[in-house]
Design goal:
heterodimer; A: alpha+beta; ATP Synthase, domain 1; Single alpha-helices involved in coiled-coils or other helix-helix interfaces; five-stranded mixed sheet; 29% helix; B: Pyruvate Kinase, Chain: A, domain 1; 2 domains; 6 strands
């Protein structure tokens, strides 16, 4: 049995990560889950959320946008539209985006077409802030 | 023979042109490098997505999705990716001609063929010759995945609303700096890709269900293919422009050499006639 997971994190713009890691946690369509080496083949869609992976004793956090998560033979392939490392996140910008999204949501009702757009913007901003905060503490 | 002054003027004007083409070539080369990098960077994403799609659809469940199959094929939509700017050799002319040929050859097969153009040049040429449903201009220079995904969603909406039954994508694929391949792809309905038979993985878990995953993956695949086509087209455009400007610069250099030769000959001729006049003048005084 392999002792490590090969993690491949890919966005349309570039390959963000290609590393050997020990454990991965992410938010799937049905909730948070963790993957360890030796996991069965598995495919799920991801929600806007946080990705955490452990490498030795170090833990890394990333903010992910919507995408896919696949495990085959201890290779984890994650396809997402955007991925940001904790130190890449612009906290100021996330706060501003949060403010904007909140403002817009106040004016809209659940039936509006734009509601979902702003709602996911709000989620993204929250996740970014959450991830950035972890970085600050760690 | 042209006068000395007019030749000098022409030499100067050709020199100016050469300077411009040289600068454009340099700019295109720089942009090409960046475009090439982004094509390469986008490739793994497209490939992986296709892999996932193959794995999902090869184990069944793809057939009934509305994006995967449609019985009637009456109305076709052709997406033509060209460029916003000219001066890139045959780049736009070739793609426009290919689009025209496509419309002509398939007009018997479909009741109606409409076009969607990306890039100003293609739109300007094709709007007089075919029905252009919609045009996107000035998005190529600041291309982002979001934009491709917006266009993709509009496409899917139109397809589901029955505005068209088949969607084709026509673009210049980047082969090398010197050459572009005009490529035609069927975008919708999605033909579930048949990859080489991979080792069977019966124990795979799917979350949520396989059908739901496929329903999300299909539109995504359309967006990614569109995005990829646009990136390839951008890289091709810069490649084509670079080659065109390179040969223009060479031609200008040749032209200058020819004109300089002509200029020197003309100058020599003037000197000779002047000398003759002086000598014959001196001869007549002596006599």
């Amino acid at each position: 049995m392999a002792e490590k997971l090969q993690l491949e994190l890919i966005t349309p713009y570039r390959k963000v990560l290609s590393e050997q890691v020990d454990m991965i946690t992410a938010f799937g369509a049905l909730g948070e889950f963790a993957v360890l080496p030796g996991h069965a083949s598995f495919l799920t869609s991801l929600k806007i959320g946080e990705l955490t992976y452990a490498k030795g004793s170090d833990v890394y956090h990333l903010a992910l946008n919507w995408g896919y998560f696949e495990v085959v033979n201890d290779t984890v392939t994650i396809l997402v539209e955007t991925a940001e490392r904790a130190d890449e996140i612009d906290l100021e910008r996330a706060r501003e985006a949060l403010g904007r999204a909140e403002e817009a949501l106040k004016k809209l009702t659940r039936e509006d077409k734009d509601f979902i757009v702003y709602e996911s913007a709000l989620q993204r901003a929250l996740i970014r802030m959450q991830v950035a905060a972890k970085k600050a503490r760690g | 023979m042209a006068s000395l002054k007019s030749i000098r003027k022409r030499i100067n004007s050709v020199k100016n042109t050469r300077q411009i083409t040289k600068a454009m070539k340099m700019v295109a080369a720089a942009k090409l490098r960046r475009a090439q990098e982004s094509v390469l960077a986008a490739r793994p994403y497209a490939e992986k997505l296709e892999e996932v799609l193959i794995r999902l659809s090869s184990s069944g469940g793809a057939g009934d999705h509305p994006l995967a199959a449609r019985e009637k094929t009456e109305k076709a939509l052709l997406i033509v990716v060209s460029s916003d700017r000219g001066l890139c050799g045959g780049f736009n002319a070739n793609i426009c001609k290919a689009a025209e040929t496509f419309v002509r050859e398939n007009s018997s097969q479909y009741a109606e063929i409409s076009l969607l153009t990306i890039g100003r040049k293609g739109f300007e040429y094709l709007r007089k010759r075919a029905t252009v449903r919609k045009n996107y201009s000035n998005i190529l220079s600041t291309m982002s995945y979001q934009e491709a995904s917006l266009i993709g969603q509009e496409l899917i909406d139109g397809y589901l609303a029955g505005d068209y039954d088949v969607v084709y994508l026509l673009y210049n694929a980047f082969k090398s700096v010197m050459s572009q391949d005009i490529t035609l792809k069927q975008l919708l309905p999605i033909e579930p890709p048949q990859g080489p038979e991979e080792e069977f993985l019966p124990e795979a878990l799917y979350e949520p269900s396989k059908e739901e995953l496929l329903a999300e993956l299909f539109p995504k695949n359309v967006e990614v293919q569109l995005f990829h086509a646009m990136l390839e087209s951008i890289a091709s455009e810069h490649g084509a422009r670079m080659t065109a400007m390179d040969s223009a610069t060479k031609n200008a250099t040749e032209m200058i050499a020819k004109l300089t030769l002509q200029y020197n000959r003309a100058r020599q001729a003037v000197i000779t006639t002047e000398l003759m006049e002086i000598i014959s003048g001196a001869e007549s005084i002596k006599g």
